[in-house]
């Protein structure tokens, strides 16, 4: 019996690796777009989890510091295949952009790709993907007028006060309002999250997260080691930043440019290269690490900046399912889910829409891609190729 179980386990892990790698190769557009790709692949197509479990996982990721889309991907991998499944899911989604950015750093640092037409097309792909995700999630996250109003308030609040702190504040307020409005609601959760990690492992992960956060700055001062200092800077950036890759960029700049570890020009060139690759924006660390210490430095920096996200999601999720199925907190979660919808719509407008749709031809391409995705139901990788081609054609016109 052991051999068939091992083969089944290996097959499951290979499936997770295949699906996550394909997403890592085709998921352009930043964290909000990634959530749209995940929703389409894991919820709509493969049905690895139900709508509410996915919405709850997204809501949890909004509370935690670090790259929200990567944490959602890790969480789905752990639910599907345990701790190894989470690691495999992370590797598949992250490694393509890590390899690309290491190559950029080694070979193409002086190559300006920020104005390339195909990159513009990939931004427009994000518009179509996020619009599709919002329409699908709205039916489940805001089915009644009260939650529609909460989503609207979250949208207005995050548009008028665009910051990571305002997002956290909106979520907390929505949780309080949701608790008051729905604390006696009879609505039930569609299914429990199957999370094959014990609370003991979760507590250990949280303890390691805080231990690294506290001890690394001390070790940095005591040892004077360049590598410890480098690990500390990337780990702290991944631990303390809410809002995703765009928010972490100024923090990384303050860590490395004034200290002379790399020049402002090299930093900006890497930022342009990061926009050209799929996957999480936190893989910008791979470029920075490679500039400072070659390909080994790139891998080292990648591990350092993503380690907090892994420890946090593994640490919190074993306790999260007990909370989300507790009648006293269901109402709060319902309010948070509605707020997350508003935040997604806000992010859809800015920066996704405002940075992508600047002329009539852009909107026309977005409409075509949306139709291909929603009505013709073409796979995301086809949409990505069509978007890149369309953006190139627009640049020639």
From TrEMBL:
<comment type="similarity">
    <text>Belongs to the chromate ion transporter (CHR) (TC 2.A.51) family.</text>
</comment>
<feature type="transmembrane region" description="Helical">
    <location>
        <begin position="150"/>
        <end position="181"/>
    </location>
</feature>
<dbReference type="InterPro" id="IPR014047">
    <property type="entry name" value="Chr_Tranpt_l_chain"/>
</dbReference>
<dbReference type="GO" id="GO:0005886">
    <property type="term" value="C:plasma membrane"/>
</dbReference>
<feature type="transmembrane region" description="Helical">
    <location>
        <begin position="201"/>
        <end position="222"/>
    </location>
</feature>
<keyword id="KW-0812">Transmembrane</keyword>
<feature type="transmembrane region" description="Helical">
    <location>
        <begin position="295"/>
        <end position="320"/>
    </location>
</feature>
<feature type="transmembrane region" description="Helical">
    <location>
        <begin position="234"/>
        <end position="252"/>
    </location>
</feature>
<feature type="transmembrane region" description="Helical">
    <location>
        <begin position="332"/>
        <end position="351"/>
    </location>
</feature>
<feature type="transmembrane region" description="Helical">
    <location>
        <begin position="83"/>
        <end position="106"/>
    </location>
</feature>
<dbReference type="GO" id="GO:0015109">
    <property type="term" value="F:chromate transmembrane transporter activity"/>
</dbReference>
<keyword id="KW-0472">Membrane</keyword>
<feature type="transmembrane region" description="Helical">
    <location>
        <begin position="118"/>
        <end position="138"/>
    </location>
</feature>
<keyword id="KW-1003">Cell membrane</keyword>
<dbReference type="Pfam" id="PF02417">
    <property type="entry name" value="Chromate_transp"/>
</dbReference>
<keyword id="KW-1133">Transmembrane helix</keyword>
<feature type="transmembrane region" description="Helical">
    <location>
        <begin position="363"/>
        <end position="396"/>
    </location>
</feature>
<dbReference type="InterPro" id="IPR003370">
    <property type="entry name" value="Chromate_transpt"/>
</dbReference>
<protein>
    <submittedName>
        <fullName>Chromate transporter</fullName>
    </submittedName>
</protein>
<feature type="transmembrane region" description="Helical">
    <location>
        <begin position="12"/>
        <end position="37"/>
    </location>
</feature>
């Amino acid at each position: 019996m052991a051999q068939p179980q091992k083969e089944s386990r290996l097959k499951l892990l290979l499936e997770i690796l295949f699906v996550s790698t394909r997403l890592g190769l085709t998921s352009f557009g930043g964290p909000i777009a990634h959530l749209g790709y995940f929703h389409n692949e894991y919820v709509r197509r493969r049905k690895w989890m139900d709508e509410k479990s996915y919405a709850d996982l997204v809501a949890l990721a909004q509370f935690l510091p670090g790259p929200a889309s990567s944490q959602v991907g890790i969480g789905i991998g752990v639910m599907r295949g345990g701790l190894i499944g989470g690691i495999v899911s992370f590797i598949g989604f992250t490694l393509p952009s890590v390899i690309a950015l290491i190559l950029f750093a080694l070979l193409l640092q002086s190559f300006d790709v920020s104005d390339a037409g195909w990159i513009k097309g990939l931004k427009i792909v994000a518009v179509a993907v996020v619009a599709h995700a919002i329409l699908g999630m709205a039916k489940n996250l805001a089915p009644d007028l009260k939650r529609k109003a909460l989503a609207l308030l979250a949208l207005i609040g995050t548009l008028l006060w665009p910051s990571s702190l305002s997002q956290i504040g909106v979520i907390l307020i929505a949780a309080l309002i949701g608790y008051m409005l729905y604390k006696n609601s009879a609505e039930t959760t569609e299914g429990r999250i199957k999370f094959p990690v014990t609370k003991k492992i979760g507590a250990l992960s949280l303890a390691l997260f805080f231990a690294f956060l506290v001890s690394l700055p001390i070790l940095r001062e005591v040892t004077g080691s360049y590598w410890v200092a480098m690990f500390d800077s990337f780990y702290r950036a991944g631990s303390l930043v809410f809002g995703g890759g765009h928010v972490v960029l100024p923090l990384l700049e303050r860590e490395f440019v004034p200290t002379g570890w790399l020049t402002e020009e090299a930093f900006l060139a890497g930022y342009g290269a990061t926009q050209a690759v799929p996957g999480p924006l936190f893989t910008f660390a791979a470029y920075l690490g490679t500039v400072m210490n070659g390909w080994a430095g790139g891998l080292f920096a990648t591990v350092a900046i993503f380690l907090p996200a892994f420890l946090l999601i593994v640490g919190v999720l074993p306790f999260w399912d007990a909370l989300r199925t507790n009648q006293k907190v269901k109402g709060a979660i319902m309010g948070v889910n509605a707020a997350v919808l508003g935040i997604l719509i806000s992010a859809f407008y800015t920066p996704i829409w405002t940075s992508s749709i600047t002329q009539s031809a852009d909107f026309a391409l977005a409409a075509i891609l949306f139709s291909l995705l929603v009505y013709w139901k073409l796979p995301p990788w086809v949409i990505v190729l069509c978007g890149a081609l369309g953006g190139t054609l627009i640049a020639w016109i």
